[in-house]
Design brief:
The chain is mainly β and about 260 residues long. It has one domain (about 5-255). It has one helix at about 5-20, and strands at about 25, 40, 75-90, 95-100, 105-110, 130-135, 140-145, 145-150, 160-165, 180-185, 185-195, 195-205, 215, 220-225, 235, 240-250. Strands 1, 2, 3, 4, 5, 8, 10, 11, 12 and 15 form a 10-stranded mixed sheet that branches. A 6-stranded antiparallel sheet has the order 7-6-9-16-13-14, with no helix packed on it. The radius of gyration is 19 Å and the shape is globular.
């Protein structure tokens, strides 16, 4: 098998495996790590191997980790960040369904504000999952498992809005299920040129960054700070799709507007 063909085959297998665990009962589901697709993330090499951080998909290391080889960060530059949205719903029989893969949003220096290679289309309907709807992307219109915007280190506080939906599209009816939403701490991304290829390195981000975000419950016209989510009384409200927005900066009236479904 030629090298290019083999690479495409392995990419298809890895993506299919990732999308095959979109939603499972919490008692059965593992924390599926998702490396932002197309970023060629480099593992941080350590002298001593340690367990990777839950849900990271790679061995992440803080820049202050004394065991991290200095060579990993030589020649690297700040390239962005990402966070992961985790959701859980409890069925009437008490079974918990969790979505711990996908649901990734952030900013990368090499991304555009529109569709780019870091935005992964959702493969198929699932029992329970998080998607980013982009129905205005013309031929690329649809739901996405990740949503990246362009990163500008000089404008890290600029207002941004990420719209996401929690969907229950098949199988178990979760339309009346209580809903929990949690946002992971940010992961900082560094970029490094290596043998003509761009590689990304994940490091520990600044958790205080979350203070600048507000969760907007579009369907109920309610807002929450991310610190309030552990105690928020959310549910699917009799629906199979719930719409939310994550707003960095000031919340505006248009942030409460519903998503226009595709024709």
């Amino acid at each position: 098998m030629q090298k290019a063909t083999l690479k495409r085959f392995l990419t298809a297998v890895s993506v299919s495996a990732f999308l095959g665990v979109t939603a499972l009962p919490a008692s059965q589901s593992g924390i599926g790590g998702m490396i932002p697709w197309g970023t060629n993330i480099q593992k941080s090499r350590k002298h001593k191997k340690k367990p990777h951080r839950e849900g990271s998909g790679v061995e992440n290391s803080s820049l202050s980790d004394s065991s991290l080889s200095d060579q990993v960060h030589i020649g690297s530059e700040e390239a962005g960040w990402y966070m992961r949205i985790r959701v859980q719903a409890t069925a009437e029989d008490g079974t918990k369904y969790a979505h711990n893969t996908g649901g990734i949003f952030g900013e990368l220096k090499q991304s555009k504000n529109g569709k780019d290679r870091h935005d992964i289309p959702t493969f198929a309907p699932a029992i329970f999952h998080v998607v980013f709807p982009h129905y205005y992307w013309k031929e690329a219109s649809g739901d996405y498992d990740s949503d990246y915007r362009h990163y500008d280190r000089h404008r890290t506080r600029r207002r941004r809005v990420w719209t996401f939906q929690v969907k229950n599209q098949k199988g178990v009816d979760l339309s009346n299920a209580p809903l929990q939403i949690r946002i992971d701490d940010p992961v900082k991304v560094l970029a490094k040129q290596e043998q003509g290829n761009l590689r990304y390195i994940e490091t520990k981000g600044d958790p205080t960054m979350k203070r600048h975000f507000t969760l907007v419950d579009v369907d109920n016209r309610t807002t929450y700070s991310l610190d309030e989510l552990d105690h928020a009384q959310l549910s699917m409200d009799g629906n199979h799709t719930r719409t939310f927005r994550l707003v960095r900066g000031q919340v505006r009236e248009r942030d409460f507007q519903p998503v226009k479904s595709p024709r």
